[in-house]
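The passage that follows is intended for readers who have already worked through the single-chain material. We present the inputs for a multi-component assembly, then the predicted structure in tokenized form, and finally a short commentary. You are encouraged to pause after the input and sketch how you expect the pieces to fit together before reading on.
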Amino acid sequence: MSRHAAPGATHAPGTRQAPGPTEAPGTTQAPAITEAAALEVRGLTKTFPIGGLFSRSSVRALGGVDLSLGRGEIVALVGESGSGKSTLARCVARLEKPSSGQILLDGVDVLKRDRFQASKHYRSQLQMVFQDPFGSLNPAHRIEHFLLRSLQIHGKAGSSSQTQQRLEELMTTVGLQADMLHSYPHELSGGQRQRVAIARALAVEPQVILADEPTSMLDVSVRIGVLNLMGKLRDKQGISMLYITHDLASARYLADRIAVMFAGELVEEGESLELLANPAHPYTQLLVSAVPDPARAGSYDPVQRAKLRQAVLASTSCAYDGDPDQPCSAEKPVRHRVGTTGNDGKNAHWVRCHLYRPRSGAASNALTVEPISA
Ligand SMILES: Nc1ncnc2c1ncn2[C@@H]1O[C@H](COP(=O)(O)OP(=O)(O)OP(=O)(O)O)[C@@H](O)[C@H]1O
Ligand SMILES: [Mg+2]
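Having made your guess, compare it with the prediction:
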């Protein structure tokens, strides 16, 4: 569960480091992940119509995504720009309507529920934190307003003294001083605003938080604070999180598992340290190779990296259409297990790629049972 290297750290992926001054969250009191998934996505697809009213063109943003989030677990979703990460989060948050598939929260298929009736209840269980802490807070209101409104909408406000106490508690939980309740958003730093956005999400006591690049607009110096806060919420409150990021170092620091998205598909998934130590998909290898690492000889060889990048971009037929020379265009690859972790199938490190060659004697590595099967 715990991560052991600070973001930006340049150690070989998979090597555990002694906790430094910014000790990784979760080194103590980490609750065990229970069996039932807090959130499960099955076969989720999303196609956007494009080109105007009379156009028949469309773009396939999600091509059948399966993903589960254990209780008290953080899963990092990484992938190139435009691969569908935000679309997945927005579909799960019901800000977009998926084209097909299932979203199970606590085992209940939320898409079968009436959208309007279910939405308030759903949002009390699942909250989203967005990338832009500046845009998500109306500058005309004081911080108190945002938190109070969340409490009121979800029926969590009690008497005025109880409410005041809860507001102050929320501020303390996210590491802000209670007197900042009277501040306006423009009086806060970017990091403080993102903490307010997290406090607003916490006000409804959700089981799951979807955080879409929550630190990417923050100064590097304040990112670590927000990441530690997220780790603390997992460890102390058992909140499950989908952490969308481009930053592998922070994914490694914070997340229990990493899922890699490429062209609307999950192509690789596994425990963070294991996946980063043994990336199996060419795209994951490309991502890992982009992290400078003095411990890996030649890890930042620009020529090698350029070649790898070219190879990966040439294999965009992973999206199963287009290039007739690639087997991917004809048939969806099966999942192959990589290594031996997660023998229960749940936390298995797997890859979905025709180019993957199991190591010798590991022909049986193809998963006969998919980790998330209906
Ligand atoms: N409302 C929309 N209408 C049409 N196409 C859309 C819409 N939203 C997303 N898309 C398309 O869906 C694909 C996935 O977009 P998405 O925003 O999910 O990517 P992303 O992985 O979050 O990228 P980034 O890392 O840049 O945030 C892209 O091709 C995008 O152009
Ligand atoms: Mg996005």
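Commentary: Residues 85-86, 212 surround magnesium ion (ligand 2) (CB under 6 Å). The CA atoms of residues 147 and 304 lie 50 Å apart. How closely did your sketch match?
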